[in-house]
């Protein structure tokens, strides 16, 4: 009897994990609609068709539920949750794909609404800001820094401080655009072609500095 090939195998999601993802998706809508402070576990439970006990069993607290929601958003940018960026792939390819995914994601309406909510409520709920950073932007930064460090050890890049290099790359991708979208949403919107052109230029600038053949000479 033949067995299914590995490529054709379909990952079966356990019922508990599937239910957890469903609840996190509902919670995201409620958080964005009402804000963190005004959202209660009872509201989320009612919207999800679950009991509060189920929510507490899966997430422990409202902060734990928010953390899971942000972590899921981070995974949408870098790939499957808890997986590393592909170490063997060339830097230009990895940086371009990550940059395009990141910029597309950050200028989406839901992502901007989430940022505004966190910025608004973090002064009253400092833990909310910490959770958001560590499970969102901080996770993307850490994954990129680990990839850059691995690429340096393989001789593909020359960056003695991978974390600093990662910060510079991510800043080049979204800093100006993100500020603009936050304060003037919808103004001078980017097309997908413009997003890709922006990322391609940022990748080229990055590699001009960190390519192994780079030499310290005046430009």
Automatic annotation (TrEMBL):
Keyword list, A-Z: DNA-binding
Residues annotated as domain HTH tetR-type: 17-77
Superkingdom of origin: Bacteria
The entry's DNA-binding region: 40-59
InterPro entries: Homeodomain-like_sf, HTH-type_TetR-like_transc_reg, HTH_TetR, Tet_transcr_reg_TetR-rel_C_sf, TetR_C_Proteobacteria
Family annotation (Pfam families): TetR_C_7, TetR_N
Protein name: TetR/AcrR family transcriptional regulator
Protein's organism: Methylocapsa polymorpha
